[in-house]
Every structure is written in C-alpha cells, then in structure tokens.
Automatic annotation (TrEMBL):
<dbReference type="Pfam" id="PF12840">
    <property type="entry name" value="HTH_20"/>
</dbReference>
<dbReference type="InterPro" id="IPR001845">
    <property type="entry name" value="HTH_ArsR_DNA-bd_dom"/>
</dbReference>
<feature type="domain" description="HTH arsR-type">
    <location>
        <begin position="2"/>
        <end position="84"/>
    </location>
</feature>
<dbReference type="InterPro" id="IPR036390">
    <property type="entry name" value="WH_DNA-bd_sf"/>
</dbReference>
<dbReference type="InterPro" id="IPR011991">
    <property type="entry name" value="ArsR-like_HTH"/>
</dbReference>
<dbReference type="GO" id="GO:0003700">
    <property type="term" value="F:DNA-binding transcription factor activity"/>
</dbReference>
<dbReference type="InterPro" id="IPR036388">
    <property type="entry name" value="WH-like_DNA-bd_sf"/>
</dbReference>
<protein>
    <submittedName>
        <fullName>ArsR family transcriptional regulator</fullName>
    </submittedName>
</protein>
Length: 183
C-alpha cells in the first residue's frame, strides 16, 4: 500500500496525528488516545502503518509474557508531497477531502467526549473567512501560515503543552468576478 492509500483512512490518519511531535507510543497507549475506536481496529491499522513504513519500532520489551512494541512516526514518509497531490484526479481529491473531514469530525467528537472538555476555555476555533486574494497574495499567505506552523511542528510533548490539531483548509470558493462585478 502506498503512502496515499495508507493515509486515506480516518483511523490511520488519527494514529499519525497521535504519533506526531516525536512521540513513541505503544499500541495500548494509542488505544487510550483513541477511546472511540476498538482495540482490534487500532492494532490492525498500526500494523498496516508499520508494514507500510510510516511507523518504525522504536523498542520492544516483555510485558507479562508478551512483547510490547513502542512505535515512532517516520514523519518524512507520512506526507503527501506536492507532486503526488498534483497528479491525483478530481475524484481522488474528493476522496482525500472526505477522509480529512471524517478524521477531523472523529477527532473533535473524541475531544468533546472527554471529561472536562470545555471548548471556550480551550480556545477551540472553527471559523471560516472569505478573502479576495491575487495569486501572489495567496502564495504570500500560504508562506506565512506555513512559517508559523513549521516553527512549532518540532515541539515535543512536555509539561504545560497540550497537543492541538490544526487543519488549514484552503480552496477557491468562486472564480474572479467578471468585469463590472466589482464595486
């Protein structure tokens, strides 16, 4: 299974999200982070991600007679590069977007189901803004957003840090106005 196929599943994408930030986790720990997903499903998808090269075994130890593996994400493999994204069909883009939205919905529901979830106190945001941008302005905005995100993507888990999921979604909502349509 190639990287695109591996990432095109909501549970596998949630596992990738859970593993981000340099974490090493056991499958049991991943199950705790995805309480709405059955253990068998988590184990099956961890196996697929490991077989596909997106997860590496960081170490192994014996626990009550069984071998417990700790996994780490191979971040460089868990991406869909620009060339791959440009080569997929419109229907594939629909499928990718649907998986991304299903994953986002599952993550948000898991957050709301946790004891003590408080969207206002946790500064939860889900806003949409319509912006009129030229191609150059769009490229500049994307660069600024990328710079802000990349500067924090290397953060590792520590006291005082909470893992947040941010999902920038950007697409043209309509074409440029016809001549005479502007005020």
């Amino acid at each position: 299974m190639d990287t695109v196929e591996l990432l095109l599943h909501p549970v596998r994408l949630r596992i990738v999200h859970a593993m981000s930030g340099g974490r090493t986790l056991t499958t049991s720990q991943m199950c705790a982070l995805l309480p709405d997903v059955s253990k068998a499903t988590v184990y099956r998808h961890v196996g697929l991600l490991a077989d596909g090269g997106l997860l590496d075994v960081a170490d192994e130890q014996r626990v009550r007679g069984a071998v417990e593996r700790r996994y780490r994400l191979r971040g460089e493999r868990a991406v869909i590069d620009t060339d791959t994204a440009a080569s997929v069909s419109v229907e594939d883009h629909r499928r990718v977007f649907a998986v991304a939205m299903a994953t986002l919905l599952a993550e948000f529901n898991a957050y709301l189901d946790r004891d003590g979830a408080d969207p206002a106190a946790d500064l939860v945001g889900y806003r949409q803004h319509a912006l009129w941008l030229s191609r150059d302005e769009l490229a500049e905005l994307i660069g600024e957003m990328r710079e802000a995100l990349v500067a924090r993507m290397g953060n590792t888990p520590s006291a005082g840090r909470t893992r947040h999921l941010i999902s920038p979604i950007l697409f043209p909502a309509e074409g440029p106005p016809a001549t005479g349509d502007t005020p």
